[in-house]
């Protein structure tokens, strides 16, 4: 843990003469993350974390009139119960998955078969890791994106316009994951178990998404969309001035699909019809969102929607985002719009890319408020 005097020194440096490059370096070299600042009693958000406000959007739920009544828009919640046994039920679920993926790009799932005890244990395991002493965590601190286990604060610290009030433990689990003993002791068993459980859910979701596109159930899985799985365990400390910063800048995900577990604190918002919509915590539910690569291969049929996380006086907030992607691994397979979805009226809108090239571009760009997909569009 940072000593109080060291934290104050870092904080004073970050808030005095504003040399952004030096201040980013000073923060990074503590290897204590945002939590280190908070633990030492910092009461002001350093300038490297200051964000311009999203004034073009309203930070409240969009209300629409239906028959004269004001009804709050909410993210679809889809019950997966019986989906593998009842063909009529499955058809209903596929229809709801299609609608949600084409409009929101987000939905929540319940009755997904991951036990509540496993969901609770992964959250507790993440908290255990981040609340260990700094010296233990520093052995995992790195900015090398090729590492299978990475602990740091802001993967794009030196690239993004503003830093986020968030620390992250990244674990690439499939394929070529670390040996179990290389994972942090505070959460290694549950990281392995949770990954196995989420992989089963992901394979089912890709079946439903394939059917929602009018394809055979195994189409996306046969394209290796579920070949890779990484866990991004985010820890958002309580923030003394949440109005000045963000938990996570608005962005889309650079994968095929994300399966997210959030906790009761909330703060996740989805951009829908030019408004930020709260995605509230629902006990036992998982949040699913379409990634950029699935928008690319579906030729814009499914939407990878922008989302963000607000900073909060309350904390810590914990979330576990499971990314279905091989990330930076050297896989040579090319992904472009699925040929079965194309026609004279629906020509390909994106050029082919490898997952690695796409993710590398995303990493180098950082969370700068723009979409990485733009680079891969076919200009007409």
TrEMBL record:
Matches recorded under InterPro entries: DIOX_N, IPNS-like_FE2OG_OXY, IPNS-like_sf, Oxoglu/Fe-dep_dioxygenase_dom
MF annotations from Gene Ontology: dioxygenase activity; metal ion binding
Cofactor: Fe cation
Keywords: Iron, Metal-binding, Oxidoreductase
Residue intervals of the Fe2OG dioxygenase domain: 227-327
Source taxon at top rank: Eukaryota
Family: Belongs to the iron/ascorbate-dependent oxidoreductase family.
Name by which UniProt lists this protein: Fe2OG dioxygenase domain-containing protein
Annotated source species: Rhamnella rubrinervis
Organismal lineage: Eukaryota, Viridiplantae, Streptophyta, Embryophyta, Tracheophyta
């Amino acid at each position: 843990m940072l000593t109080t005097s060291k934290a104050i020194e870092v904080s004073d440096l970050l808030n005095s003469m504003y040399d952004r490059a030096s201040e980013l370096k000073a923060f990074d070299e503590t290897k204590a993350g945002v939590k280190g600042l908070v633990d030492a009693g910092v009461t002001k958000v350093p300038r490297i974390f200051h964000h311009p406000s999203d004034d073009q959007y309203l930070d409240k739920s969009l209300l629409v009139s239906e028959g004269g009544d004001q009804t709050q828009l909410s993210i679809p919640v889809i019950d997966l119960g019986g989906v593998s046994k009842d063909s009529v039920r499955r058809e209903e679920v596929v229809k709801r998955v299609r609608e949600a993926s084409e409009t929101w790009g987000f939905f929540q799932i319940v009755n997904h078969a991951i036990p509540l005890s496993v969901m609770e244990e992964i959250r507790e395991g993440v908290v255990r890791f981040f609340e260990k002493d700094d010296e233990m965590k520093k052995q995992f601190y790195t900015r090398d994106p090729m590492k299978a286990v990475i602990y740091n604060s802001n993967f794009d610290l030196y690239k993004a316009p503003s830093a986020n009030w968030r620390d992250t433990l990244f674990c690439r689990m499939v394929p070529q994951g670390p040996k179990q003993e290389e994972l942090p002791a505070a959460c290694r068993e549950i990281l392995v178990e949770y990954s196995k459980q989420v992989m089963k859910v992901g394979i089912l979701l890709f079946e439903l998404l394939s059917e929602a596109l009018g394809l055979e159930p195994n189409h996306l899985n046969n394209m290796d969309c579920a070949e890779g799985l990484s866990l991004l365990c985010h820890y958002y400390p309580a923030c003394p001035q949440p109005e000045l910063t963000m938990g996570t800048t608005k962005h889309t995900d650079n994968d095929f699909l994300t399966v997210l577990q959030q906790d009761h604190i909330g703060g996740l918002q989805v951009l829908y019809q030019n408004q930020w919509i709260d995605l509230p915590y629902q006990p036992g539910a998982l949040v699913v969102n379409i990634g950029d690569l699935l928008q690319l291969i579906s030729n814009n049929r499914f939407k990878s929607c922008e989302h963000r996380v607000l900073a909060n006086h309350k904390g810590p907030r914990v979330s576990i985002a499971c990314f279905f992607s091989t990330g930076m691994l050297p896989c040579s397979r090319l992904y472009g719009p699925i040929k079965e979805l194309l026609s004279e009226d629906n020509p390909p809108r994106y050029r082919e890319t490898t997952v690695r090239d796409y993710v590398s571009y995303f990493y180098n760009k950082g969370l700068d408020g723009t979409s990485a997909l733009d680079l891969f569009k076919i200009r007409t």
